[in-house]
Amino acid sequence: MPIAADIYYYSHEEEGKLPVVLLHGAGGSHLSWPAEIRRLPGFSVFALDLPGHGKSTGRGHQSIANYSGSVMAWLDAIGIQRAVFVGHSMGSAIAQSLAVDHPGRVTGIGLIGSATRLGVNPVLIQESANETTYFNAVEKIVSWSFSMHMPENLKSLVVKRMAETRPSVLNGDLLACDRFDMAECLSQIQCPAWLLCGDLDKMTPVREAYSLAALIPNTRLEIIPEAGHMVMLEKPEVVAASLSRFLREVPY
Fold first, then answer.
1. Nearest 5 degrees, angle CA 128-CA 134-CA 140?
2. How confident is the model at residue 150 (pLDDT cuts 50, 70, 90)?
3. How confident is the model at residue 1 (pLDDT cuts 50, 70, 90)?
């Protein structure tokens, strides 16, 4: 089981190919990324379990900056100098933070279900902090993250996986998201950026994606029809194809 800097990671490596690091959202793991993306051909892909998540040890954090620091420590431990960071929701906040604070280590960023701020419904923060209401929070998050087109059995699988995350970890993730605000710094991002949003996203609506794209200088935005916040699970082939097109244009 590959672990570096106390972070478990799944890797699909192709020698000499552009490194791509996948960063999951709140309460997620490397399994939040479908196989079509984890095994994207033509690239060296690394899907991380952030601290306290999935197979990683330690505790989760309550700030995006601390998660960014953990990713940097992992990057140093595995010996990667520069990479493209692709993040979903909370992971997209980490990718933004890395691009602003460590531009020399970031070749490009991919932001899925993202925004300049990731304000969280107070009910989710409250329910995730209490073990007796924790499952209610998980069910709400999953319900709000998918469109009506997502099969119920797949929703149930996501609920099961997220419910395995410790309440303190998910609560910390939600607090980190709620405190996140990059609006003043986004003009500093000079690397290529790729933004993706489902047209039925309730968590980070399309209007947020347009606002974010307007603030990052070198960016492209794609809206995926009939998909919600977990667009990469609802439309894995479409997202993988779009990501591959972007990555092929990133200088390496």
1. 80
2. confident
3. low
- How many CA atoms within 13 Å lie on the side-chain side of 101? 15
As a whole number of angstroms, the distance between CA 208 and CA 114 comes to 7
**Residue 84, domain CATH:** 3.40.50.1820
The per-residue pLDDT of the chain, averaged, comes to: 95
Q: Tokens for 140?
A: 């709400």
pLDDT digits (tens, 9 = 90+) for 111-143: 999 999 999 999 999 999 999 999 999 999 999
From the list 59, 52, 24, the residue with the least C-alpha distance to 38 is 24
Helix (H, G, I), strand (E, B) or coil at 100: helix
Domain enclosing residue 239, as ranges: 3-248
Residue 186 in contact with residue 97, Cβ under 8 Å? no
Buried residues in 112-121 as b, exposed as e (16+ CB within 10 A) = bbbbbbbebe
Q: Which residues contact 13 (CB under 8 A, 6 or more apart)?
A: 44, 45, 46
The pLDDT score that the predictor gives to residue 203 is: 95
The pLDDT tens digits for 40-98 are 999 999 999 999 999 998 899 999 999 999 999 999 999 999 999 999 999 999 999 99
What DSSP character marks residue 57? -
Query: What is the total count of domains within the chain?
Result: 1
pLDDT at position 202, please?
94
- 3-state SS assignment for residue 78: helix
Cα(233)–Cα(231) distance, integer angstroms: 5
The residue among 227, 236, 229 whose CA lies nearest residue 35 is 236
